[in-house]
Amino acid sequence: MNLSPESESEIVMDDLYIADQSALVEFCAGLRGAAWLALDTEFVREQTYYPQLGLLQIASADRVACIDPLALPTLEPLLERIYDPAVTKVLHAAHQDLEIFFHWRGAVPEPVFDTQLAALVLGDGHQVGYAALVRQQLGVDLDKTHTRVDWRRRPLVPEWLTYAADDVRYLPELYRRQHAALVERGWLAALTEDFQALTAPERYRQDPEEAWRRVREHQRLGGAQRAVLRALAAWRERQASSHDRPRRWILADAPSVELARRMPATLAELSGIPGLPATTRQRHGETLLDLIAAARAVPPEQWPALPHRPRLAPAQIARADELLALIEERATAHGIAPLAVAGRREVENLLAGQDSPLCHGWRAALVGRELQARLADVGDG
User: Fold this and answer.
1) 191 phi and psi, to 5 degrees?
2) Fewest Cβ atoms nearer than 10 Å: which of 100, 248, 298, 348?
3) Cα separation, 103 vs 195, whole angstroms
4) Are 53 and 66 in contact (CB under 8 A)?
5) 128 and 19: one domain?
6) pLDDT tens, position by position, 173-204
7) What average pLDDT does the chain have?
8) Residue 40 in contact with residue 168, Cβ under 8 Å?
9) Count of structural domains within the chain
10) Which residue range is the domain that position 132 belongs to?
């Protein structure tokens, strides 16, 4: 896995706008042999289920290209470079960008290097934005005037293209500095597992039967009510994906929870659900009632369960406090927010012998293995 940047450290300046297939082929030919590419996307999804790509930005060691997917018959020459496993893809807050590629090909390009995740480990902020990181590390203030642009509109005005190019222009230099800092501190190997987790297909594959877990306030429902919510959320997910519409356009979270809580059995009862539009009742009322009735009949052993929180003995609770204090000490020493490392629940899972983020990746390297060793010593004693 090649995560090493090339020796160039200057910020790239040569910008291209590519809306012609021959220009794309020529540009991609110049990328052969590159060890890394900086990557960003501009998309819209306010009125769709799937993100709609409007622009794709690439930075190499000496140029930036804004590639127009709406003007090109195919992006295949570029995708060959992006999906090349010998090329590290450098992104900031990579999840949403990688989701687009997953929907295209059913797979995520790898390996990746996420500058937001690297910034966290290097003590530069938890979930720090790209503009803030560029200002902090490079002293450059980016123009964020065009954050609300509809990237499907054409023509793309020059100011928009400059804004989009800036979103990758400084990634190579951030990558170079972060890579060097991670190597110096011995953190690069620890982050490899976390970077690999970003490319796991299950992160991007939506299971309708698990969609209820993303509904706000689902934790407040009882077992039978959760069974109803599961049925409603699964139906909503399938409707939204098949019609490419936002979930909230099908059924918003608040009325979903109220439907699960009240479990109406008639259209008259359905009309009393706050936040449920009349158009939804008219169009889907009978379907909703059928889903609710079927879910109410599910036996208790098949009700969806909330994540199990282990019950700890008094001595273990005191031990958890000790471990949390150690986490705070180690995190603070590295300039990392302690809650970004772990909270009480993650520590309790570790104490109960369950899987915990503290057992993986950079968290394990920072303090997780030390916690496990201490717990092992207590057990041996």
Assistant:
1) -80, -15
2) 248
3) 19
4) no
5) yes
6) 999 999 999 999 888 999 999 999 999 999 99
7) 93
8) yes
9) 3
10) 14-203
Using 50 as the pLDDT threshold, list the residues of the chain that sit under it.
1-3, 7-10, 380-381
Instruction: Write out the two tokens for 334.
Output: 């590295």
Where is the domain boundary, 137, 170, 203? 203
88 within 8 A of 192, measured Cβ to Cβ? no
- Separation between Cα atoms, residue 361 and residue 299, nearest integer Å: 39
CATH code (residue 157): 3.30.420.10
- The answer as to whether 7 is a domain residue is no
The C-alpha atoms of residue 307 and residue 324 are separated, in whole angstroms, by: 21
Could you report the per-residue pLDDT of 81-97, keeping only the tens digit for each? 999 999 999 999 999 99
The pLDDT value given to residue 316? 87
Distance, in Å, from the CA atom of 7 to the CA atom of 332, rounded to the nearest integer, reads: 32
Angle between helices 223-243 and 278-296 (to 10 degrees): 130
Alpha-carbon dihedral of residues 257, 208, 285, 277, nearest 10 degrees? 50
Let me know whether 231 and 127 are in one domain. no
- Within-domain flag for 2: no
Residues 291 and 231: beta-carbon distance below 8 Å: yes
Burial class for 342, CB neighbours closer than 10 Å (0-12, 13-18, 19+): buried
Structure tokens at 370: 């030390």
